[in-house]
Specification:
GO terms for molecular function: sulfotransferase activity. 49% of the residues lie in helices and 4% in strands. It is mainly alpha-helical.
């Protein structure tokens, strides 16, 4: 891969290959909105066979840590504990959403002083980045995102490697997603999904999993229960 380059992963810290020459940007979202977004993401991919399942069922899986890439809180804390490492930046989705300009400059400064300096000296470049990374621009790629599974299956096939799965799931993997990959992109959509009891259960889960961590302080300025 040409350098410099970027690789997107969903791995927790202990499974992520690390290099002192690389820089790692961990973008995280509050557990309430993450649960809702993850639900819609899951039901949009035919291979999950979750299209007709209610939010209540996914919520149970989420708070029990039975979702892709493991328990949400274990994942969060694994990276949060390294937030002060020189080559790790932990930034929230909410931070980027509420003040994208400041968020982009923060990322640029992290990648190298010269990058942040350039954006401050050339505001037209910063404006171009803001436009390119905006929600409206990303939504414009939804039709392409729907073809992602078909392309991913082809790429895996080209590697000569196989992923154990039933013939039915293998066939579903080739089908395009049914919903939009980029959906609402808002803060607080959990209010349209969570019942009072689910709020109670999520708060209990948060208290249990983060009792020895300050990770939830990342959302001190966000309207959460």
């Amino acid at each position: 891969m040409p350098r410099p380059g970027a690789i997107k992963t969903h791995l927790p810290y202990h499974l992520q290959p690390m290099s002192p020459e690389a820089k790692y940007i961990y973008v995280t979202r509050n557990p309430y909105d993450c649960c809702v977004s993850f639900y819609h993401h899951t039901r949009s991919f035919p291979a999950y066979r979750f299209a007709q399942e209610p939010f209540d069922k996914f919520f149970d899986m989420f708070v029990e840590g039975k979702v892709d890439f493991g328990d949400y809180f274990d994942h969060q804390i694994s990276w949060y504990d390294h937030r002060n490492d020189d080559n790790v930046l932990v930034i929230t989705y909410e931070e980027l959403k509420m003040n994208p300009r400041a968020g982009i400059l923060k990322i640029a400064d992290f990648l190298g002083e010269s990058h942040g300096k350039k954006l401050r000296e050339q505001p037209e470049v910063l404006e171009r980045i803001l436009n390119t990374t905006s929600l409206n621009t990303m939504k414009g790629f939804n039709d392409e995102f729907k073809k992602w599974t078909e392309k991913a299956t082809d790429i895996i096939g080209q590697t000569g490697k196989t992923i154990p799965m039933s013939p039915e799931v293998a066939e579903d993997m080739k089908k395009p997603m049914t919903g939009d990959f980029v959906r609402k992109g808002i803060i607080g959509d959990w209010k349209n999904h969570f019942t009072p009891d689910q709020i109670r259960r999520m708060k209990e889960r948060i208290a249990e999993k983060t009792k020895d961590s300050t990770v939830m302080s990342l959302w001190d300025g966000v309207d959460l229960p």
